[in-house]
Write a structure and sequence with these properties.
The complex is a heterodimer of chains A (about 350) and B (about 250). With about 350 residues, chain A is α/β, with parallel strands linked by helices. Chain A contains 11 helices and 11 strands. Chain A has 2 domains: about 190 residues, no CATH class; about 130 residues, no CATH class. A 7-stranded mixed sheet of chain A has the order 1-9-8-7-6-2-3, with helices on both faces. In chain A, strand 10 and strand 11 form a beta hairpin. Chain B is an alpha/beta fold and about 250 residues long. In chain B, strands 2-1-3-4-5 form a 5-stranded parallel sheet, with helices on both faces. Chain B starts with 10 loop residues before the first strand and ends in a 13-residue tail after the last helix. Classes of the chains: A alpha/beta (about 350), B alpha/beta (about 250).
Chain lengths: ~350, ~250
């Protein structure tokens, strides 16, 4: 990693240059909630002023830039006695500005699955490799618990990461592409004062978390509490609406559907992001549903996030952003579910 | 037109309107970019929005609208006798739709309100399946042409017809919309069957449940959600009653 410091005016020039020559996305205010608070999403930006870099969180994650909610996998063209398959996964180079550390860590987890996993996805890889990613630190929202999961800092998976020092950013440069872009603007080497401020800023962020979730023993605890009554308690609240998985930065389960065009001359195969909490997630051909109960579906969502991955890949797949908790209308959220589980297991002793 | 070397048989359809706005049938004549392909799969025997020809030799009858008069009952029964397959097309046909709001009032009051001193004969509104056997229900106000196209392709290629079982929220979040509950709206998306592409909520208006219930909709918890969001039982009931497609979502106003 190479470190530089850039004034905020120069940073603006850098981003304006990127916006001018690339499709660029970043946090934008899309609505004002009934509580008067702004609601943000990652959207296309046309100028630096479109960006809301001091945003608290985006309602949906960055995931769908890499795993689109609906993605064409291939097309088929029929002739009278034959057919041809067409596959394309070209993605134009693009820029994302303002990703939080936990969102980049979420992408790193998806990389483990779709790049380094047993079945790499060329579709995902094309999107990931053609995205110039600029990260940015922030003060944690009050319900965020990424620190509990060790996802507060990020060391890879981005091109450039900015730590906010007030009038300037402390830059962590993680790619030659970023290094070369930075040659076009004025940067300097960090001074001892910058280093000190960087450490202060880090400590401030770390000490500002208001939500803590005990996750160290969670994989074992989940094993032990498989039959816990808390799954029914929280499962009863589940609307089977699937929004938790939709907004989640790491939920990647999907369905594949083949559709014949109304012309009958072509067909398409599409992948759609699915959710393990919806009623037919585990329904198979012939109609059998392996998980007909909502409490089981909810339980297995937690198992996938905190148990399965921990056992198989020594990491939990949740990054602690609490988007699922905020999106859930009945208020099912990891902090309360996990705390309930810990309390319940305490009662057993 | 051949599909994988096989010439599929055209579907002989008749389309009939009852108490409705005929919007669902008009939907079938929309989406011009694929309209020719769509009509190529059909042999239109009787469909006044599309053709002036009036035949009786249809296999599939599309029924739009609810039933609100005695002559409609008799006409519907005749169509049922002729049709091999009878499809309830749209929210009115599937659930009674907007028309069934009438059933919440005294019928004399309703007639007087609408027709004044010139009353007409009318019955309480019924959905199609209350009168004859229905083989397939395609909900929506109006129906989604894309969904109808898919069903027609499934029929000619012999594939199973499937509707989404999950609620509108899945499609809404796939569009990265703001949840309209956060904007203060009473939305029926969490209990309503998807398949519409979340058109209403994508336009920042609440879902009003035209497609009927999602499978295993959690009414009990949804009632609690509405309460916690500050909606009164009356507000909830009025929304639920609008299309009549969510009869299990009972609201206690006491």
């Amino acid at each position: 990693m190479i470190y530089k410091v850039i004034g905020k005016d120069e940073f603006r020039k850098l981003i304006e240059g990127l916006i001018e020559s690339n499709e660029t996305f970043g946090p934008r205010q899309v609505d004002t909630g009934k509580d008067g608070q702004p609601i943000y999403q990652f959207r296309k930006v046309d100028s630096f002023d479109d960006l809301e870099l001091d945003y608290n969180y985006t309602a949906s994650s960055l995931k769908n830039f890499f795993l689109p909610f609906k993605e064409l996998l291939s097309r088929y063209a029929f002739t009278d006695d034959d057919w041809e398959q067409g596959i394309e996964y070209r993605v134009n180079p693009r820029v994302i500005v303002g990703a939080r550390a936990c969102d980049i860590n979420a992408l790193n987890k998806l990389d483990d699955i779709f790049i380094r996993g047993a079945f790499p996805s060329p579709y995902y890889m094309a999107r990931r490799n053609n995205t110039f990613l600029i990260g940015m630190d922030h003060m944690p929202p009050e319900d965020c618990f990424c620190e509990s999961l060790g996802e507060l800092t990020v060391r890879q998976g981005f091109n450039l990461f900015c730590t906010d020092l007030g009038d300037r950013y402390y830059l962590s440069i993680n790619s030659s592409k970023a290094f070369n872009f930075l040659k076009k603007v004025k940067t300097s080497n960090p001074t001892a004062e910058d280093d000190r401020k960087w450490i202060e800023r880090r400590q401030l962020i770390k000490s500002s978390f208001q939500t803590e979730v005990e996750t160290d023993e969670l994989p074992d605890l989940l094993d032990i509490e498989f039959s816990s009554p808390i799954w029914k308690k929280w499962g009863d609240k589940c609307l089977n609406c699937g929004v938790c998985a939709m907004v989640c930065p790491t939920c990647y389960c999907y369905g594949v559907e083949e559709t014949i065009d109304v012309s009958l001359k072509q067909a398409r195969k599409e992948r759609q992001q699915y959710s393990c909490t919806v009623v037919d997630f585990a329904e198979v051909a012939g109609g059998h549903n392996f998980r007909p109960l909502k409490e089981d579906r909810l339980k297995y969502r937690y198992y996938h996030h905190y148990h399965g991955f921990a056992e198989n890949a020594d990491q939990q797949i949740c990054v602690g952003c609490n988007r699922c908790g905020r999106a859930c209308l009945p208020g099912i959220n990891p902090k309360d579910v996990i705390n309930d589980l810990i309390l319940e297991s305490g009662d057993d002793v | 037109m051949k599909y994988l070397g096989i010439d599929p048989e055209k579907i002989k359809i008749g389309s009939f309107d009852f108490t409705c706005c005929e919007g669902c049938q008009l939907q079938l004549a929309n989406k011009e970019d694929t309209l020719v392909d769509f009509l190529n799969l059909l042999e239109v025997v009787n469909f006044r929005e599309i053709s002036s020809y009036r035949g009786e030799d249809y296999d599939i009858a599309l029924i739009e609208g609810a039933i609100s008069r005695q002559d409609e009952v008799e006409r519907l029964k005749r169509i049922r006798e002729q049709a091999k397959v009878l499809v309830a097309l749209g929210t009115c046909a599937c659930f009674g739709g907007v028309n069934q709001i009438k059933n919440k009032f005294e019928i004399e009051d309703v007639v007087r309100e609408v027709y004044g001193d010139d009353p007409v004969e009318t019955l309480p509104v019924r959905k199609i399946s209350d009168v004859v056997k229905v083989d397939l229900e395609i909900p929506g106000c109006p129906v989604s042409k894309e969904e109808v196209e898919k069903i027609v392709v499934d029929l000619v290629t012999g594939a199973e017809i499937n509707f989404p079982k999950y609620p509108v929220c899945v499609e809404c979040r796939r569009k990265v919309n703001t949840c309209v509950f956060d904007l203060g709206l009473l939305c029926l998306g969490p209990i309503t069957r998807a398949g519409c592409g979340a058109v209403c909520t994508s336009g920042k208006t609440a879902c009003i449940g035209c497609r009927g219930p999602a499978e295993e909709a959690n009414y009990e918890e949804f009632r609690q959600v509405l309460k916690e969001h500050g909606f009164t039982p009356r507000e909830a009931r009025e929304r639920i009653d609008f299309y009549g497609g969510l009869p299990e979502m009972v609201i206690d106003e006491s």
